[in-house]
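Please review this one:
***
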Amino acid sequence: MKRTAYIATAASVVLMLGGPVAAAAAATADTARTVPAAAAARADVTAEAAVAAALKAHPGVVQSVDRDGSVWHVDVISKDGKHAELEVNAATGSVTKENQDDNDDDGNENAALLAAKVKAEQAVKTALAKHSGQVWSLDWDDDDDNGKTYWNVEVKTTDGKTHNVHVDPATGKVTASTTDSDTDDNDNN
């Protein structure tokens, strides 16, 4: 009986003396666990992550990606020709399907896109290798006056410049690159 009383008394003393210290240590440990999670929630979803999230929700081939405020608009063409317009939340990465429709033409409209050797993901990597920064948009462009098809990737750099990089869908090589700055409207190659 005395032994139980001693143990209870010792536990009370430990809690009284160690309680505030233990609570402070627990709060510090709790803060350490939640700060990275909060920081991750504030971190923007990159174009690459938006593409991955969109393809997970709607498998196929990405036709375009465009940042509009707090969302990424991603157009995906599935192997069976269905077109889906998806929105990816730029803060959370959650995907919502805005519109989905069947390909109205005879299937030829997106044939070159579906058959392209270099997909959107590789075009983004190629453009970022050329200009370090953040991809702001990517478009499959098959309306070129010369009849050429290419990926147009817009990369914004920390120095305020915007680089439009054309990536060949067959070779994956950069075929053109123009630069615009916020203060200068001249194009530089």
